[in-house]
Amino acid sequence: MVGDVTYTYLSDGTRLSARKANGAGVITRGSFSYAIDASGTIRLESVGHSEGRIYVGNSGELKDCWNISDHLGNVRSVINPDGMIGSLWLEQSDYLPFGMRINELSDQLGDAQRWHLAGKEYQKFGSSDLGLVDFGARYYSPMYCRWTSIDPMAKSFSSISPFSYCNNNPISNIDKNGLRSIPLKDKFKEWIIKIDSWFGLRDTKEKDASKNHKGLDFNYSGGGDTDLGAPVLAAHEGIVSVHESTDGAAGRYVTITAPDESVKTKYFHLSSTKVKEGDYVGESQEIGTMGGSANGSENGRTSHLHYEIHTKTDGKWTPINPSKDGNNTIESLIDPQLMIDESSKLYYGGKLPAAYIISSPYQIKYTIFL
């Protein structure tokens, strides 16, 4: 229970319902949202689609509303394209940097329109305003600029506060579901992660090194082969392909292709693999260990991870810069998980035979089998 609202969840994090002490609230089934009143009467409230939502009025009339969003996915306006002048703009919003909604104008949809910051659902049900946004894996407070529970991936990113939002850079970064996605842990032994070589044209003067680099090279601050064996993590979920041979410039490598084939990533020069051909992996799952395999040898390169992101252009896979805007910083990395269509994901979207009930303000979850 949070405030006077009790939540129930499937074991994969999919919310089933949010109900007040009197029984009124919201029931969620996929993209369908149902309102339930204190007497137990249920009616369809809205249905989400890729560009907005279809809202159902009290008399059963439908409003097909479209969202106008900014580069961070924040819903800035909700419009009804079929509306007459004056009813076209149903809602307009501005936001402070960490997501507090301000300058709320033309709020004609009322409590039925709860999707604002990053397109996520604000937790307000009638008179119960919790001040939280549901990102899926955890809840975020725009007022306090912090998550209300620890990052599930906190062990992999020990140098970053597990409560900070978007690495404290909400102008450039987004956090789709409350999880982080970097192909390595931020620390290995006593050394910290760094990007060592950039995307595009370069001349390293090293033998057999590419002149047109198709990815980024990562290693740790210890230098040399001190990072040999560091865990390599999947940047997104998808289907695995494994090249176990050390032959060729790439050496031993793993490729992960998203279920909707919108993106794939490659991880070169591995010293070992932790997955096998055809496996389906989740975001941040360990898939191998860092190494220097190349040209038929385990030591063909100094230990590092060469990491690539590919997207399809005219039906052909094309490498793109994994660093947003070419900044070559950890904070600017593109998260491939965000490129995958929500309906195709197996993680944070599947149906499992268990539910969670949140029983404290800290979102401690206890499993209850149905």
Explain what this protein looks like in three dimensions:
This protein is an all-beta fold and 370 residues long. It has strands at residues 5-10, 15-20, 25-29, 32-36, 42-49, 52-56, 62-69, 75-79, 89-95, 101-105, 121-125, 128-134, 139-141, 146-147, 187-188, 191-197, 200-201, 212-213, 216-220, 231-233, 238-243, 253-257, 263-268, 272-273, 280-281, 286-289, 305-313, 316-320, 355-358, 365-368. The protein folds into 2 domains: 5-150 and 349-368, no CATH class; 187-344, Glucose Permease (Domain IIA). Helix content is 0%, strand content 39%. The strands form 5 sheets. It has a 12-stranded antiparallel β-sheet with strand order 10-9-8-7-6-5-4-3-2-1-29-30, with no helix packed on it. Strands 15, 16, 19, 21, 22, 23, 25, 27 and 28 form a 9-stranded antiparallel β-sheet that branches. A 4-stranded antiparallel β-sheet has the order 11-12-13-14, with no helix packed on it. The protein is elongated, with a radius of gyration of 23 Å. The model is unreliable at 348-370 (pLDDT under 50).
